[in-house]
Amino acid sequence: MIKQMKDMHKKTCMARSGVKKEGLAKFMEEGVNDDPAFKKYTLCMLKNMQGFKNGKIAIKDIENQAKAMLPPPLRDAILDATSKCSNTGGDTPEDITYNFSKCSHKANVKSVMII
């Protein structure tokens, strides 16, 4: 169920943002991809998964979803990342979600399962 939901959001957000699979792979490998299409993708994914609300990362919502829906190893990775990345900022919504994704990748690569 979780994988199906992620795949559905991924397909939608790839189409909306224009990001290519190579852009997603680059981020997973390197932890960075400042291409505007990738930044749009992070915003789309976090919005669709209720992780971005009112112009900021919805840390509590992300944590609550992780606790309710994910198995312990993945849940713990996400909780670790949210505790370390709750204060990432940016000038635009895309920058905010990208900076959060980048920080999460650095904190625990497993936490960026949305990519």
From TrEMBL:
GO molecular function, one term: odorant binding
One family name in Pfam for this protein: PBP_GOBP
SMART domains documented for this protein: PhBP
CDD domains: PBP_GOBP
SUPFAM superfamilies in UniProt: Insect pheromone/odorant-binding proteins (SSF47565)
Domain of life: Eukaryota
Family annotation (InterPro entries): PBP/GOBP (IPR006170), PBP_GOBP_sf (IPR036728)
Protein name (Swiss-Prot/TrEMBL): Uncharacterized protein
Record lineage: Eukaryota, Metazoa, Ecdysozoa, Arthropoda, Hexapoda
